[in-house]
Amino acid sequence: MLKMLRFILSPVIIIIAAYGLITKNSEFQSLMILLLGLMMLVMGLEEFQKERKTYGWLLVVVFLFSIFVSVQGFLLN
């Protein structure tokens, strides 16, 4: 389930990033950061399942930081 979610999020993030690079439009940057954060959460949960707690906690902290950044981006735009 988590692996499938990661494989769904990856192309969506790449498409949004490519759109931003090609059009030089940063309108969807906050959405991309939010989706990247969700992908970090999924990867962190996968690491917890593999009993690698250090990497799991690191990815969860990165998820929390990216959620904070994306919320700030949504509020400022």
From TrEMBL:
- Asked whether the keyword Transmembrane helix is assigned, the reply is yes
What would be one Pfam family of this protein? Answer: DUF3953
Q: Which residues cross the membrane?
A: 5-22, 28-45, 57-76
Q: Which UniProt keywords apply?
A: Membrane, Transmembrane, Transmembrane helix
Write the protein's name.
Answer: DUF3953 domain-containing protein
Which organism is this entry from?
A: Paenibacillus segetis
The organism's taxonomic lineage, starting at the top:
Bacteria, Bacillati, Bacillota, Bacilli, Bacillales
